[in-house]
Amino acid sequence: MEELLRTTDITVIPLARVLLLDEGIDSFELDVNMSVLEGSIGILPRRLMVRRDDLAAARQLMMDNGVPLDR
Questions:
Q1: Which of 3, 26, 55, 65 is most buried, by CB atoms within 10 Å?
Q2: In which domain, by residue range, is 10 found?
Q3: pLDDT, tens digit, for every residue of 45-59?
Q4: How far apart are CA 16 and CA 40, in angstroms?
């Protein structure tokens, strides 16, 4: 698995996951428990991972839909 994006914005991951799902690209969210433990401060980012073979298509999909990859 490769990192597609990393963010502290709680709205970005769900949007990205729906876009990926619609295109048949599997994704996996990391660091969910850590960001929940820190509360609502928003200092610990969550990461969204995709398969290495899907990374280029996933990046293009995010760019086409205005999802920031570098937060």
A1: 55
A2: 2-64
A3: 889 999 999 999 999
A4: 21
